[in-house]
Write a structure and sequence with these properties.
Number of helices: 5
Oligomer: single chain
Number of strands: 7
Strand content: 25-35%
Strand order of the largest sheet: 1-3-5-6-7
Length: 201
C-alpha cells in the first residue's frame, strides 16, 4: 500500500510488529499527534534515530519503521502524558515533510508480511526462550496465550526475541528490515550464545 500519510515519531528504539511501546509525551507537537491519532483512530510511525540532533545538523532516522497504534493513556507521576502503543505494520518511508508545529509527516509504503510459518525444529530453542520472556512480560502482550508457542509463528517469535533480547539498536534495525522470518531466526540463533550464562566449573 502506498501513499499513506502518517505522523513520524523518530525514537531511540526499534519497534516491531505486535511490540510493546510505553512513551512519555511532553513536546507539544507529539501531544497534538496523540490527540489526532486518538480522534481519528489512526496510527503514527516509529523510526529509529540514526544520529542525534545537535546545533550543526538535524537528526536523521532510518527509512524502515513500524506503525504504532495507541492502546492506553495515563497521567504519569510527573504530570506528563503517558501512552502505551503497540506495533502494527512495517513500512518504508518514501519522503517526509514538516508541519508548521515541527511534526514530521511521512509518505509510507506498508510492507507485506509473509504468511504464517511454523518454526522448524532446529529453531525450537527460540520458542523456549520466548516462553521464558512471556512468563515475565505476558501482561504487555494481552493477545498472547501459552499455547501459541506450541505451533508458534516464526514471524511472531522472531519479532519478540529481536525486541526483547539486549541487542544493539543497529542489530535490531537489521532484524526489522529482514523479510524472511527464517533468516531472522537464524540470526537470533547465532547471537543467542552471547546471552547465555557461562557454565560454573
Amino acid at each position: 500500500m502506498t501513499g499513506t500519510d502518517i505522523p513520524i515519531f523518530p525514537l531511540n528504539t526499534v519497534l516491531f510488529p505486535d511490540g510493546y511501546l510505553p512513551l512519555r509525551i511532553f513536546e507539544q507537537r507529539y501531544i497534538e499527534m496523540v490527540r489526532e491519532c486518538s480522534l481519528n483512530a489512526s496510527c503514527f510511525g516509529v523510526c529509529l534515530i540514526n544520529n542525534s540532533e545537535d546545533s550543526n545538523k538535524p537528526a536523521t532516522h532510518m527509512k524502515v519503521g513500524t506503525t504504532a497504534e495507541i492502546v492506553d493513556f495515563s497521567t504519569l507521576e510527573d504530570g506528563l502524558l503517558g501512552i502505551t502503543a503497540r506495533g502494527k505494520q512495517r513500512f518504508i518511508l518514501n519522503n517526509t515533510r514538516m508541519r508548521d508545529n515541527g511534526l514530521l509527516m511521512g509518505d509510507v509504503e506498508i510492507l507485506d508480511e509473509p504468511a504464517v510459518v511454523e518454526i522448524p525444529v532446529e529453531f525450537s530453542v527460540l520458542s523456549m526462550v520466548t516462553g521464558r520472556f512471556m512468563e515475565q512480560l505476558a501482561a504487555n502482550y494481552p493477545a498472547f496465550k501459552p499455547r501459541d508457542l506450541q505451533d508458534a509463528d516464526a514471524n511472531w517469535v522472531g519479532y519478540r526475541l529481536a525486541e526483547l533480547l539486549p541487542l544493539d539498536l543497529d542489530e535490531k534495525q537489521v532484524l526489522l528490515q529482514m523479510s524472511d522470518p527464517l533468516e531472522r531466526l537464524q540470526v537470533l540463533v547465532d547471537v543467542l550464545p552471547r546471552f547465555q550464562e557461562p557454565a560454573v566449573s
